[in-house]
Amino acid sequence: MKKNILIAPVLKWVGGKRQLISDIEPLIPKKISTYVEPFVGGGAILFHLQPKKAIINDFNKELMNVYQVIKDNPNELIKVLKEHKELNSEDYFYEIRSLDRRDDFENLSSVQKAGRIIYLNKTCYNGLFRVNRAGFFNTPYGKYKNPSIVNEVTIKAISNYFNSANIKFLTGDYKEALKSLRRGAFVYFDPPYMPISSSSSFTGYTEHGFDYEKQVELRDECLKLHDRGVKFLQSNSYSPEILELYSDQKVFNIEIVKAKRSINSQSDKRGEISEVLIYNYEKE
């Protein structure tokens, strides 16, 4: 299957990996039987690689619904997005944002829910998908002059890819995506990062935080994969905790890369920061 250059992330997501593709791609094994991404997020690596067989998962059910709808109902989704574009204003944004606080939210169709998330993502401040502790979307309006709400070409390209490849969609605990993987599979982990400062510990895209215990659990899952002969690559923050967790040089290789982080409410906190790439195989 030839790569389609029109395929790209349809959502801006916290910690998106588009800018790290040039660092990540050389580390990816040439032969992969099944590509697995347990924290798929905006899908930058998935959409860049376009594997023929994949398992993708995210804890965020709104996000996974967007992907399912793009696969099954791209034209209906585009129609809904055109309606949002027509009606877009600050008042309209807050009206749509508040829908998840209403009892009848579950009555919305999957297409309406997907359209809502894409619309909010394209028009909210900094394109930041964020929920509060109650699980409600709470990012303010972005006041953009001409936001790109209807990305028809990208939606159709992703839909064609999802329908021509063998892709399993999962929603929930990332460990489900790791079950019964065999040698030849390759896992790319992009978990919620270990905070590098007390001010950056925001839990982001789900109401469930990914704390230090979860990072330890993830390291243990990596060791289990290694014991089964499954190759993996993980992105994480360059922090003492992560370096300590992955200090076993018999298993883990660590490379430090620079990433630009533009999603921060304080402009002086944006800019280049170090991140790590952790993997358990020899580079090809």
Summarize the structure.
By secondary structure, the protein is of the alpha/beta class. Helix content is 33%, strand content 15%.
Which secondary structure elements does this structure contain, and how are they paired or packed?
Blueprint: H1 21-24, E1 35-37, H2 44-49, E2 53-58, H3 61-72, H4 74-87, H5 90-97, H6 110-123, H7 152-164, E3 166-171, E4 186-189, H8 212-227, E5 231-237, H9 240-245, E6 253-261, E7 271-279
Parallel strand pairs: 1-2, 1-4, 2-3, 4-5
Antiparallel strand pairs: 5-7, 6-7
Helix pairs in contact: 3-6, 3-7, 4-6
Task: Describe the protein in words.
The protein is α/β, with parallel strands linked by helices and 284 residues long. Helices cover 33% and strands 15% of the residues. The chain has a seven-stranded mixed sheet with strand order 3-2-1-4-5-7-6, with helices on both faces. The chain starts with 20 loop residues before the first helix and ends in a 5-residue tail after the last strand.
